[in-house]
Write a structure and sequence with these properties.
The protein has 15 helices and five strands. By secondary structure, it is mostly helical. Strands 1-2-3 form a three-stranded antiparallel β-sheet, with no helix packed on it. It has a two-stranded antiparallel sheet with strand order 4-5. Helix 4 packs across helix 6 and helix 8 packs across helix 12. One of its GO terms (molecular function) is DNA binding.
Length: 339
């Protein structure tokens, strides 16, 4: 059992309440704060927060520099930077609390800042690999669809390619969210695990027509053949049955998955089965961003495409999903004529 300081625990509970109710943070974000604070307490041997001294920040930074992750590797610069920011956020809040205003100043809190070089390196974006639309379609064609579960997986892959939906949303959608007549999915933030609980209406992107055809056939099968209702899962978990005295999982249930791990598994396996890089589902959003760039659409259509990805600001799509490699950058600049 790990050590703890009772006074510290009470303060952390108050801070968690503040993050949850005043800042609206979700449990996943709060868990990261908890983990960061435990790291700091381990470094100080669980001394009371009220005995804070700026020397503790130096020792904490040194400890993070030596710390290793679960794979036995040193913590990345981004992890170290994020941990420092989370702990700094706590002490910034603490400096304004009754009983701490004389022992902790906002200037003291600034000692948690990372050095500029490491902070800049931590936020440097690495090149993100994503499949070309040709590679994605090749993976789709290579997916088996002999069993009901294989058909579900192939429909799931097709759905990701025509919506760019995130794994949390894909795993929690129900049939009531699908409108095949008008061609869109309603990602209701109240019942679908969207990013930050945002509600998004996504019209099916005009990618390869086989994607939409296969997905449509899957939804029709669930509604007509399996008699699924509006509240049943779009991509259900397997149903456990007993056949000849043994448990089998050979058909879908009506229940959604608890998380998006199955979506990740299906997407990566589709590529590895055809000897391609195991791309993750989120990379399909990059593929859709590249398709936007390749089509050279009018500005209004580009904005609609961006909104379809769930972005309120077109700049988000441009900065995050319209990658320009170093080679492309050089070719484009060299291709410009002098004035």
């Amino acid at each position: 059992m790990r050590k703890f300081n009772a006074d510290n625990e009470r303060l952390k509970r108050r801070y968690v309440q503040y993050l949850r109710e005043a800042k609206g943070q979700d449990e996943q974000s709060i868990d990261k704060v908890r983990a960061a604070l435990v790291r700091f307490e381990e470094c100080t041997k669980f001394k009371p927060f009220k005995s804070f001294h700026i020397d503790q920040t130096r020792k904490f930074k040194d400890a993070l520099g030596r710390a290793k992750n679960t794979r036995g590797q040193l913590l990345s610069l981004s992890t170290t930077d994020a941990t420092l920011r989370l702990v700094k956020g706590f002490f910034h809040w603490l400096a304004g609390q009754q009983g701490f205003k004389k022992v902790l100043t906002y200037a003291d809190v600034d000692y948690f800042n990372n050095n500029r070089k490491d902070a800049r390196a931590a936020h440097t974006q690495n090149p993100v690999h994503f499949p070309s639309k040709q590679a994605a379609y090749h993976a789709f064609q290579g997916m088996a669809d002999h069993t009901e579960l294989e058909q579900r997986d192939k429909a799931m892959f097709a759905f990701v390619m025509i919506t760019g939906a995130r794994v949390g949303a894909v795993s929690s959608l129900r049939l009531k969210h699908i409108n095949l007549v008008d061609g869109f999915v309603f990602q209701d933030g109240r019942t679908v695990r969207t990013k930050a609980g945002k509600t998004i209406t996504t019209w099916f992107f005009p990618m390869h027509p086989d994607y939409l055809a296969y997905f449509t056939a899957w939804v029709t099968y669930l509604r007509d053949d399996r008699k699924f209702g509006a509240e049943d899962a779009l991509f259900p978990k397997p149903e456990r049955r007993i056949v000849d005295g043994k448990f089998v999982f050979d058909r879908v249930s009506r229940n959604i998955y608890a998380n998006g791990s199955k979506v990740n598994e299906v997407f990566k396996r589709a590529f590895t089965q055809v000897q391609l890089h195991p791309y993750h589902p989120h990379s399909a959003r990059k593929t859709l961003g590249q398709e936007l760039s390749d089509r050279e659409l009018p500005l209004a259509t580009q904005k609609a495409w961006s909104q379809n990805l769930g972005h309120e600001n077109f700049t988000t799509t441009v900065s995050s999903y319209l990658p320009v490699s170093d080679q492309q950058q050089g070719a484009l600049i060299k291709g410009l004529g002098s004035v």
